[in-house]
Amino acid sequence: MSSSQRASIYERITADILAAIERGAGTWRMPWHHDGSPAARPINVAHRKWRC
């Protein structure tokens, strides 16, 4: 991939992100602020066991 193609990809992705921001992405919440419900723990889907 040439540097001009790479720059073009970066420009396209940046334009897509800016367009999404301008459209409005909804209400953003900081993930560490929650309503008091327990946070989900990561789970190993292959074994269905909690990871610690």
What's the gyration radius in Å? 19 Å
Strand content: 5-15%
DSSP helical segment count? 1
In what order do the strands lie side by side in the largest sheet? 1-2
Largest sheet: 2 strands, antiparallel
Number of strands: 2
Compute the average pLDDT: 76
Helical fraction equals: 40-55%
Taken in chain order, the helices and strands follow as: HEE
Structural class: mainly alpha
Q: Given the C-alpha coordinates, what overall shape results?
A: flat
CA-to-CA gap between the ends?
A: 41 Å
Uncertain residue segments: none
Outline the structure in words.
- With 52 residues, the protein is mainly alpha-helical.
- It has a domain at 1-26.
- 40% of the residues lie in helices and 8% in strands.
- It has 1 helix and 2 strands, in the order H-E-E.
- A two-stranded antiparallel sheet has the order 1-2.
- Strand 1 (43-44) and strand 2 form a beta hairpin.
- The longest helix has 21 residues, at 3-23.
- The protein is flat and about 45 Å long.
- 0% of the residues are buried.
Q: Which key features would you list for this structure?
A:
flat; 1 helix; mainly alpha; two-stranded antiparallel sheet
Question: What is this entry, summarized?
Answer:
This protein has 52 residues and is mostly helical.
How are the elements arranged and paired?
Elements lengths: L2 H21 L19 E2 L4 E2 L2
Antiparallel strand pairs: 1-2
